[in-house]
Amino acid sequence: MPLFTILIILIAAGVILWLVNNYIPMDRKIKNIFNIVVVIAVIIWLLKIFGLFTYLMNITV
User: In the chain, what are the domain boundaries?
Assistant: First the structure.
């Protein structure tokens, strides 16, 4: 996946998250949980894109 596409998707996710936080009335606790879930999902997606997710899953303790 080209770096430009990844950048566009990250910007779109950030804008959507900002819109949800500012314009959809929710309890503060629910917004915090929603933000954490979205950030973790984006981090996992980025790790998969760059091939680090499978590397980290194969590390044995």
Answer: 3-57
pLDDT tens-digit profile of 19-52?
999 999 999 999 999 999 999 999 999 999 988 8
Cβ neighbours of residue 27 closer than 8 Å, sequence gap 6 or more: none
Whole-number Å distance between alpha carbons of 42 and 36? 10
What pTM value is reported for the model? 0.80
Residues sharing a CB contact under 8 Å with residue 31, sequence separation 6 or more, in sequence order: 20, 21
Task: Annotate 9-46 with b (16+ C-beta within 10 A) or e (fewer).
Answer: eeeeeeeebeeeeeeeeeeeeeeeeeeeeeeeeeeeee
